Amino acid sequence: MNDLLRDTLTERAAATEPPPLDLDGIIAAGNHRAARRRTLGILGGAAATAAVVAGGATVLRPRDEQPQPARPGPFSQRRATFALGNEIHYGSEVVSVAPHTVTAFVQTDAGFVFLNAENAIHVADRSGVRSLGKSAWRLTADHRGNLVGWVESLNDHGESVVYDVAARRELVRTPIGNKIPKYASLAHGPEIVALDGGTAYFGTLDGLYRWDIRTNRGEFMAKVSPVAVRTVTAGQLVYQQPLGQAGTGLSLKVGPTLTTGTRTTYNGQQAFLSPHATYLVTQPDDAMMGIQPSWAGLQLFGVTADRGGPLPRPYWNFFFGQWLDDTNFTAAGLRSGTNADVVDLLTCNASSSACTVVAKEFSKLTFSKQPPRVAPFALPTGRPIIDRGE
């Protein structure tokens, strides 16, 4: 984070409060979306047993369609949320997942999906904690709805999976694009890039696929690395420049396709678009960069709105949590000064950049001794907070 982003709101951050979160509006919007999904057709089930993709075909198991629940799910409200040890703190509510330790998790309307210390996938909802008998390195979810995605690694291939937490069933499972060549050394493995409404985006070893979840059919989009596209929200893709770069490039574009979009180039590695793609937050993959270039901290950009000011200076670094709505998001702030290893959970307003502490000193930023060196807490991004340094 540069000096301008640190200095501008030093004085007003402590005195300014973000506008109150419109919970009624969020719930009403969720009801409207649920009704719209019932009108257009559910996201579950396959309409055919074959998906033709990029000139080839793969046989897929048919799925039985089931209606979506009429009422909002028990966790449809987005609150300031974090996981610490065997507890998920959902606002003032605490969800125990004992004896498991949460290393990464996401929120869906039906419940939380998390990885434990062995990378095994579990669901925590109002009925308790259940194992899915699967494992993955990271999880992906939309900012609303009941779906979660992951990639399962098998001996010679990976399989892209989309799972309905409310219906307790898989909607998509496909090995397309993820055959692992013999003796291959992969810089980046396949991953679920994004779930955006009824569409999934698969970053495969062959390239990027766009997948219609309702029909269980996909189309090939581009021959790029599995991480070339960072996320997709409201139909807007965040993708690196140049697209052909094998690693996680630092120059990012936002647009509806991989060849069109805004002229602005953003910088960062991980990317988090607000629900209507109004704002973009970026941050590095490494939680503890040894040298602080301009892109190494959490950064806030305006995509279709003016960018807000800097985040409060009392924090040396920030780690993104999740968008609560199109303007407000959560982040963990690493304190500067004498308590430099202590983190607070904050809610921040992207328009004003004012932040409020909602969980003071909820954890310390330490890392496990054995790789991967993960932090003791997790935020609902689907991936652990990792120190890549030795």
TrEMBL record:
Keywords: Membrane, Transmembrane, Transmembrane helix. It comes from the Bacteria. The chain crosses the membrane at residues 40-60. This is DUF1513 domain-containing protein. It comes from Kribbella sindirgiensis. The lineage of its organism: Bacteria, Bacillati, Actinomycetota, Actinomycetes, Propionibacteriales.
